[in-house]
């Protein structure tokens, strides 16, 4: 394992003691999210963009589009590519260089949450079957990492996609006129995909951890869902879980989805 | 469950493809195994515990488990470019997380245990086959283990849950399409790995976990038998 910086041990022990009584340092309940702030249209040059703050955690999402060839196995579908970068400016723990595992996993789990929920109607992004389709690049950057980047990034992706405009495309010249946006939006479904990550600390599950809490996480389960359906799931880190604990997490996620949705609904119109 | 649903290869809903497991397939390795379900073939080799290099990567508290999942270029119909990808990097880590809970690593401070998994032929379920092979290889290498890990993929095709999807089933397009849920657990039902792609309700997912539990027990028996045969 690569060495990782962690919070002081004594802080961890105190967090655990608190959790036994169902309390957290910042006064939240175990299943309570921090305050969520969403700003859209934060980038002039992106087709869509969003800045999301969850407590002190901050991420930036940008949508860029381009025309390219479809994959041979899906000649009538547009493509999505989700990439995440953990910027060294966002935490003393991150260093410049090629992406390491945490960034790769972040991108891939977000990709699945968006792709599997069928939030983007890829069929409508086909320009000419087998030859030309739109590719949507979804790029996530960490600006300040105080835990739970993934759930925050998922909210950011939804907000950025919702507000994105497709650029003009000159079919004769086969050229995308970047910077000249049409009024057309990216075709999205009504069901909003959200990722919710539950972390196990001792015998308790919490959601939306701060970095100090995240350092103590023995295992985490990220569930991507649309409220009604579960569309992606990933267990991370080492501690095993009992089957009944998994069921507990599923209930917790269901409840949390409703809470978060209420908080962010107004930003998504 | 939908009794009328016909699987492409005629299997019953809870039927695993034919499994073959063999321990000790790579003489150079400290432990090795082949695990095959249907046409999916994984081999795994364990080297170690050995000294971790570079020194600054050493963990003075325990040995480090390092897994490396790789598909060989001609394991699938469209050739894969050799070398690591984002997908293989993730599966390598997932494999480490799946296996590490059963290993007793504190006996080997500053050491590293390398597990190399190669997919020779792919027909879906490669990460599960890789984990099954790796679990056997670790056991043969004599790494102290509390349990074996067994891994299976549960699928949902439209609304029907089935065990151990093959590639043709993974590409199923009707109704709600395919959902893939790879799960790894110990024989006493502790989950060390679970992922999901697709669309499923909470209740269906619970059923899928129960099916995985049963399937993993069957795989465990095959693994146990393979280990016994290796010591003959």
Concise summary:
The complex is a heterodimer of chains A (269) and B (232). Chain A has 269 residues and is of the alpha+beta class.
Please tell me about this protein's structure.
The complex is a heterodimer of chains A (269) and B (232). Chain A is α+β, with helices and mostly antiparallel strands and 269 residues long. Chain A has a single domain (9-268), classed as GHMP Kinase, N-terminal domain (Ribosomal Protein S5, domain 2, 2-Layer Sandwich). Chain A has 5 helices and 13 strands. Chain A has helices spanning 9-20, 101-116, 149-163, 211-216, 243-264; strands at residues 36-40, 48-54, 57-68, 79-85, 126-128, 132-144, 165-170, 175-185, 194-201, 204-207, 219-225, 230-236, 241-242. In chain A, the strands form 3 sheets. In chain A, strands 1, 2, 3, 4, 5 and 6 form a 6-stranded mixed beta sheet that branches. In chain A, strands 10-9-11-12 form a 4-stranded antiparallel beta sheet, with helices on both faces. In chain A, β1 (36-40) and β2 form a beta hairpin. Chain A is elongated and about 65 Å long. The model of chain A has no long low-confidence stretch (mean pLDDT 93).
SSE layout and pairing:
The complex is a heterodimer of chains A (269) and B (232).
Chain A: H1 9-20, E1 36-40, E2 48-54, E3 57-68, E4 79-85, H2 101-116, E5 126-128, E6 132-144, H3 149-163, E7 165-170, E8 175-185, E9 194-201, E10 204-207, H4 211-216, E11 219-225, E12 230-236, E13 241-242, H5 243-264
Parallel strand pairs in A: 4-6
Antiparallel strand pairs in A: 1-2, 2-3, 3-6, 5-6, 7-8, 9-10, 9-11, 11-12
Helix pairs in contact in A: 2-3
Chain B: E1 19-23, E2 31-37, E3 40-51, E4 64-71, H1 86-99, E5 111-121, H2 126-140, E6 150-157, E7 160-163, H3 167-170, E8 178-185, E9 190-200, H4 202-230
């Amino acid at each position: 394992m690569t060495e990782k910086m962690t919070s002081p041990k004594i802080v961890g022990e105190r967090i655990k003691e608190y959790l036994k009584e169902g309390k957290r340092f910042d006064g939240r309940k175990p299943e309570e999210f921090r305050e969520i702030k969403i700003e859209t249209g934060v980038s002039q040059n992106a087709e869509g963009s969003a800045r999301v703050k969850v407590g002190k955690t901050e991420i930036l999402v940008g949508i860029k589009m381009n025309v390219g060839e479809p994959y041979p196995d899906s000649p009538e579908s547009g493509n999505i590519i989700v990439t995440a970068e953990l910027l060294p400016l966002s935490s003393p723990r991150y260093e410049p260089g090629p992406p390491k595992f945490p960034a790769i996993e972040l991108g891939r789990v977000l990709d699945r949450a968006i792709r599997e929920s069928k939030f983007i109607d890829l069929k409508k992004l086909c320009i000419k079957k087998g030859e030309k389709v739109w590719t949507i690049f979804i790029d996530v950057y960490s600006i300040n990492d105080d835990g739970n980047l993934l759930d925050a990034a998922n909210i950011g992706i939804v907000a950025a996609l919702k507000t994105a405009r497709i650029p003009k495309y000159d079919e004769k010249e086969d050229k995308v006129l970047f910077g000249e946006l049409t009024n057309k939006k990216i075709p999205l479904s009504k069901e909003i995909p959200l990722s919710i990550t539950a972390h196990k600390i001792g015998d308790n599950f919490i959601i939306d951890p701060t970095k100090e809490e995240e350092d103590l996480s023995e295992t985490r389960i990220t569930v991507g869902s649309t409220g009604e359906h579960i569309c992606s799931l990933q267990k991370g880190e080492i501690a095993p879980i009992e089957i009944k604990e998994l069921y507990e997490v599923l209930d917790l996620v269901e409840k949390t989805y409703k809470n978060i949705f209420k908080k962010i609904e107004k930003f998504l119109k | 469950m939908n009794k009328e649903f016909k699987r492409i290869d005629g299997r019953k809903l809870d039927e695993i493809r034919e499994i073959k497991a063999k321990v000790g397939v790579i003489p150079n390795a400290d432990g090795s195994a082949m695990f095959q379900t249907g046409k999916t073939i994984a081999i795994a080799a364990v080297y170690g515990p050995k000294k971790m290099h570079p020194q600054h990567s050493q963990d003075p508290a325990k040995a480090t488990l390092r897994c490396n999942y790789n598909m060989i270029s001609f394991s699938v119909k469209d050739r894969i470019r050799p070398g690591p990808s984002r997908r293989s990097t993730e599966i390598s880590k997932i494999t480490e997380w799946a296996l590490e809970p059963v290993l007793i690593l504190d006996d080997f401070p500053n050491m590293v245990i390398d597990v190399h998994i190669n997919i020779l032929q792919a027909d879906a379920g490669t990460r599960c086959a890789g984990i099954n092979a790796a679990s056997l290889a670790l056991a043969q290498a004599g790494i102290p283990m509390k349990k074996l890990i067994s891994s299976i993929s549960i699928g949902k095709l439209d609304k029907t849950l089935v065990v151990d999807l093959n590639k043709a089933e993974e590409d199923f397009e009707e109704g709600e399409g395919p959902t893939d849920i790879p799960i790894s657990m110990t024989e006493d039902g502790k989950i060390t790995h679970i992922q999901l792609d697709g669309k499923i309700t909470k209740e269906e997912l619970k059923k899928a976990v129960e099916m995985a539990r049963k399937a993993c027990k069957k795989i465990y028996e095959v693994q146990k038998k393979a280990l016994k045969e290796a010591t003959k």
